[in-house]
């Protein structure tokens, strides 16, 4: 039996992922590091596997012991609008995730899987994509991290607690996107959060 830890369990993908892990018989315990108490009704936990821990992400390194699991999943992420500044965005989407990867390595977990973005490129003119690309480079260059892998979704579909205009438009026009985006463009299709969560689970090292 395996144990897992999830960062970003309250987000769109994080919620879907935690529910998948709770139903997976290979896992006996799912630890979730969160900013505030979880809304238990959003998680199906019939076997009492869910172990939420409220932490201060600005002191993430102080919680190193929680990374003593088999698999670490990182679903942390925000938007420039929600973060309020480029510095705040980078703190969440680069610094927190990078520290999580370092703690995974320090505690010798078997693997680390995180959410990046389609088009991530350290040389991109887009600040968002540049940060995602810089993070990919930083993690993949880390020595002694046994196994690390990123999923690169496009616009996410699913029911959010907060409204996001682009994603709302993507939901309404999904049939058109599916028809037009074929071949090399297929990777840019909007994707459901549950499918991203399934991809993260499939990427883990067993």
From TrEMBL:
Pfam families reported for this sequence: NAD_binding_10 (PF13460)
InterPro entries tied to this protein: NAD(P)-bd_dom, NAD(P)-bd_dom_sf
Domain of life: Bacteria
Domain (NAD(P)-binding): residue spans on this chain: 8-159
UniProt name for this protein: NAD(P)H-binding protein
Classification of source organism: Bacteria, Pseudomonadati, Pseudomonadota, Gammaproteobacteria, Alteromonadales
